[in-house]
Amino acid sequence: METIRLPFEDYHFLMELQQELAAQSNDGNADPVYWGVMETRKVCVPEGCGDAAIHVGDGVALSLEEAVEWVNERIGEYSQEVQVLWKELHKDIQDHWEEWCYSNVDDLVGFIQQKMNCKECTWVYQRDEEYISRETGAFLTKRACQQYIDQFGYNHTKPHTYAMTAFRNFELERLLKILREGLDFTPAKSIWHKLTENADPERFVVLSDCMDHISKRLRWPFAEFVRDSKKIEGICYTKWAYQDELMNL
Q1: pLDDT for 238
Q2: By three-state DSSP, how is residue 175 classified?
Q3: Per DSSP, what are the bridge partners of residue 123?
Q4: Are the CB atoms for 35 and 148 separated by under 8 Å?
């Protein structure tokens, strides 16, 4: 088996990722699974298949309740005649609320257009539709996806995590299998000895420097190493092992 050297931070990142991939739920999906951010948007639908959305300009879309409140907040700026007409219409809305929700929105929109001179006022039926955000890409773990939502969810509408199957994505399937099963983080058995231990002065030792790099040019008898190592400037040799022991690794 090949040995891969990694920085300390990368080693622990992969080790924790392996544990998380093995433990997390796939939320009912088949492997390979990845995660995305599901959010909500408004879509136009046929009459009666959604709720009325009244547009009053500047990109503002109001529900029926919000549109009534919008008129109430502004009606005082209009003539007494317009205010009387609104009072009558408002009473009709309150008395026949269910019918207004589905059939008579045109009367309210017509009032806003003609009496309040808001010519751009229109309305459509809309409903909420969930979709996968294209802004975030894929996440390998549910935790990472949720972490993104916790930090940047304000950029989305009603966001939540959503698991998906990468059907026939053999490259991703192989990568996840390697991350989950192909990396062995079992600590390797070390045969390095401390400098203070007794050693056979007749046998050669292999030394390593403070970064654990084996020094191929220094193969000294232990007694000579103890005597001469202090004279080597800029290098602090701290470990030793018998050469035949290293061959068994």
Answers
A1: 54
A2: helix
A3: 54
A4: no
